[in-house]
Amino acid sequence: MRIVLGVGGGIAAYKVASLLRLFTEAGHHVTVIPTEAATRFVGTATWEALSGNPVSNSVFDDVHQVNHVRLGHEADLVVIAPATADLLAKAATGQAGDLLTNTLLMAHGPVLFAPAMHTEMWQHAATRANVETLRSRGVAVLEPAIGRLTGSDSGPGRLPEPEVIFDAAMALVEGQSDYQLPLAGRTVTISAGGTREPLDPVRFLGNRSSGKQGVALAVAARNAGATVRLIAAHMEVLPPPGVDVIKVETALQLREAALAAAADSDVVIMSAAVADFRPAEVSSTKIKKRDDTADPVITLVRNPDILHELVERRNSSGSAEGEQLIVGFAAETGDSHGDVLAYAEAKLQRKGCDLLVVNHVGADKVFGQDTNSVVILARSGSEPQEASGTKTQVSAAIISRIGFELNHVSPRT
């Protein structure tokens, strides 16, 4: 596929080098057209080295090839990143003062803008009008991410992560002209992995969680346009790029991090395997095994119910209906008193969360595996939803359901 990658003159231009690499590694032929201002942030040598093609921003270079017409005609896709307020305005008003804006006017295929600018610029009436004009013409304009901007400011206006732009671009080419990022502009907090409760400086009480499902959820939420915070307990996999990572070890540490992160989160997903109990006492020295002493007796105390506390805080804060969605996970086994779903339904009512993702776990199920099978239960009483496959596929189904819930709020009971 032939892609024209237009680079606007913003500080986020440096992140577009990673987007270019994603396109080229996927086998696409990419022509980079930076604006003159963009070359002040990233030089043409970088774009030429990464794309393998010559780079120009002038209509007077290689005139015999009529590039200002040819590039737009030949492109299967045009992506503009970062799309500055200036570029959005020029595109909306049909200006053609350089090679990039000429190419936009000549483009026959899909066009995707990934905006990046200061919050006040993004929220200005002029910029909003330009965005609406472009969208009314069938041009795809992503919502910017929310996060740290240039300097100490934070807010909407951050360039979406390269992986998010890449996924949106591929979806657009595949014919999803109405492609929207279901979590664009949302902040999602996800807990992952298994907590470890220390017994002494050497030993701990832990569980079998690998963190694979939580990491897959973080990737799916990121690719859906969200700003993602990953509260990472012990994991056997690395956190994904493009998410903020908060490392914790114990259930109490996870509680503190989750309550703080949830304060400004639109969605909280508690997928970590949190220990129900911890040792009442932690030895400051290694507990020795000696023939002249009795076997140690370990007294356990309950850990706080973090999921229930998150729900209580949300409900007592006076938040408007649908302002925050809380998703719990239940790793269950059946017994003589009930099956997995019976225990899960009881847990859903007890915890009060909006959605509960239920795993049937066992020694050779779920933990550490690359596949999963879950049932999504809703407090609203809607029919249970099943999802199975790789943990990536299961995560996509869960994030899709969350996006649906955020846009189709049912009253909580």
Entry summary:
The protein is an alpha/beta fold. The termini are far apart. Helix 3 (67-74) packs across helix 5 (99-106) and helix 4 (85-93) crosses helix 7 (125-136).
Write up this protein.
With 413 residues, this protein is an alpha/beta fold. It folds into two domains: 2-173, Rossmann fold, CATH 3.40.50.1950; 187-407, Rossmann fold. It contains 13 helices and 19 strands. The chain has helices at residues 13-25, 44-51, 67-74, 85-93, 99-106, 119-123, 125-136, 162-173, 212-223, 251-262, 306-316, 340-351, 391-407; strands at residues 2-7, 29-34, 77-83, 111-115, 140-141, 145-148, 154-158, 187-192, 197-198, 204-205, 227-232, 244-247, 267-270, 277-279, 300-302, 325-332, 355-360, 371-378, 385-390. The strands form five sheets. Strands 12-11-8-13-16-17-18-19 form an eight-stranded mixed β-sheet, sandwiched between helices. It has a five-stranded parallel β-sheet with strand order 2-1-3-4-5, sandwiched between helices.
Write the layout of secondary structure elements.
Elements: E1 2-7, H1 13-25, E2 29-34, H2 44-51, H3 67-74, E3 77-83, H4 85-93, H5 99-106, E4 111-115, H6 119-123, H7 125-136, E5 140-141, E6 145-148, E7 154-158, H8 162-173, E8 187-192, E9 197-198, E10 204-205, H9 212-223, E11 227-232, E12 244-247, H10 251-262, E13 267-270, E14 277-279, E15 300-302, H11 306-316, E16 325-332, H12 340-351, E17 355-360, E18 371-378, E19 385-390, H13 391-407
Parallel strand pairs: 1-2, 1-3, 3-4, 4-5, 8-11, 8-13, 11-12, 13-16, 16-17
Antiparallel strand pairs: 6-7, 9-10, 14-15, 17-18, 18-19
Helix pairs in contact: 1-2, 1-8, 3-5, 4-7, 9-13
